[in-house]
Amino acid sequence: MKISIDSLQKAFESRVRLGIMSILILHDWVEFVELKELLKVTDGNLASHLSALEKLHFIQTKKQFIGNKPNTSYAATKLGRESFGNHLNALETLIKGFPK
Question: What pLDDT sits at residue 49?
């Protein structure tokens, strides 16, 4: 079996982006603060990764006010779910293709 990494999605190379997508696949909407706590990253680091995933249309953003406080939540889009699923399948195929 020929092993190829061509089908891996470059957008998911970062551990933070893998974490973001893993969390968003499991939950409908997740708040920025919760993502930050789960991933143990800074505001700026998380914001830059979220922005990159949003530009690729892999996630969507919902901004609202709860009381007088701004609240931002994120969800995986259909494209994001499909792309992440394909990435995981490609990783599995790649791993299974290595000789033991």
Answer: 98
H or E segment and range at residue 7? none
Predicted model pTM: 0.89
Lowest mean pLDDT among 55-59, 82-86, 89-93: 89-93
Compute the CA torsion angle 39, 16, 42, 26 (nearest 10 deg). -40
Bridge partners, 61 (sequence order): 74
For the chain, the domains span 11-97
Fill in the amino acid letter for 90.
A
Report the CATH fold assignment for 11-97: Arc Repressor Mutant, subunit A (1.10.10)
CA atoms within 13 A on the CB side of 39: 27
CA dist., res. 9 & res. 61, Å (int): 21
* Structure tokens, 70: 């701004």
